[in-house]
Amino acid sequence: MPDAIAHYKILDRIGAGGLGEVYRARDTKLGRTVAVRVLPDSLIGDRVDRLLQAARAAENLSHPNIAALFEIGEDGPYRYMAFEFVPGEPLTAVIRGRALNLRRAVDFSIQLADALAEAETREIVHGDIRPDTIVITPKDRAKFLNFGFTDFTSGGAARRAAGSASASGSPSVVAAYMSPEELSGRAPEARSDIFALGAVMYEMMTGRQAARGRPRSVPVPTSESGKGVPKDLDAIISKALASDVDKRYQSAATLAAELRALAAILDARAAEAEAAFEPPRAHRRRGQAVVAVILLLVVAGLAFWIWRSGLLGLLR
């Protein structure tokens, strides 16, 4: 592990992947913590050119729910990329086979759909959306990692291999988040990202994978999962997971808008439920207030009686 790369002081090693070793580092110029990826020596020729092209596109992608790429450069023998360091834990660890709180899951879904909508305007595809490529921060925000670099990550390679395996009927964990068109050998596109997000949403809200190891299977509706998910959500999840790409959401912005409408409905129902319990609570509060007033009057009357009795005794 080097002590420093360019103006980044290396703090510790985070891990490794298709894009090389990853280190947590301190940007000594700007005083911020970053994630520095040291590109592998095996990345040569045309792959370097394609990576630089992807990096230039990613540098222009700015959204609060996407880990930003700050810089790509060289320092002696090192070729590196400096990304926003995202503290937290992978969505996989947050779910852990259990459904999330519904309102929280809807919030995460809105944030991620907004991020995809921004990427669509830049014509950038993630291509490897799954709980492992999403981090939940300590402030409960969802962030995509490796946006635009799927062709170079180990996750992307596993996804392509899973597509080949799934085409012959072999199940795969990664394939559970792949769209039918990807399983048929086509390159991922923006609507493929929407399908993958739909699979992630399903898992957040039910605690189970939509495909359950069978990538071409039709998932049980979310409202029948036994997790208290309302039927309102079924139509949204079903449309995001539509096998026919033309029947799927055609833009992430539309998906985000429908999720926001659902969030408003859920909030209204919660307010109604709270209001239904308000009269008894208000009645109890009024009753308590009356009792308090009565006690005060009794105490005041008793004090007055004692005072008056003492005064009469003095007069006698």
Give the gist of this structure.
The protein has 316 residues and is α+β, with helices and mostly antiparallel strands. It has nine helices and nine strands.
- For the biggest β-sheet, the strand order reads 1-2-3-4-6-5
**CATH architectural arrangement of the largest domain:** Orthogonal Bundle
Distance between the termini: 100 Å
* Order of H and E elements: EEEEHEEEHHEEHHHHHH
CATH H-level superfamily title of the largest domain: Transferase(Phosphotransferase) domain 1
Structural class: alpha+beta
What kind of oligomer do you see?
Answer: single chain
Give the CA-based shape.
globular
Number of domains: 2
Percent range for β-strand residues: 15-25%
> Count the helices. How many?
9
**What does the main sheet amount to?**
6 strands, antiparallel
Radius of gyration: 29 Å
CATH topology description of the largest domain = Transferase(Phosphotransferase), domain 1
How much helix, percentage-wise, in residues?
40-55%
Q: Could you explain how this protein is built, in words?
A:
By secondary structure, this protein is an alpha+beta fold. It has helices at about 45-60, 90-95, 100-120, 155-165, 180-185, 190-205, 230-240, 250-275, 280-315; strands spanning about 5, 10-15, 20-25, 30-40, 70-75, 80-85, 90, 135, 140-145. It folds into 2 domains: about 5-85, Phosphorylase Kinase, domain 1 (2-Layer Sandwich), CATH 3.30.200.20; about 90-270, Transferase(Phosphotransferase), domain 1. About 45% of the residues lie in helices and about 15% in strands. The strands form 2 sheets. A 6-stranded antiparallel β-sheet has the order 1-2-3-4-6-5, with helices on one face. Helix 3 (about 100-120) packs antiparallel against helix 6 and helix 7 (about 230-240) packs antiparallel against helix 8. The protein is globular. The mean pLDDT is about 85.
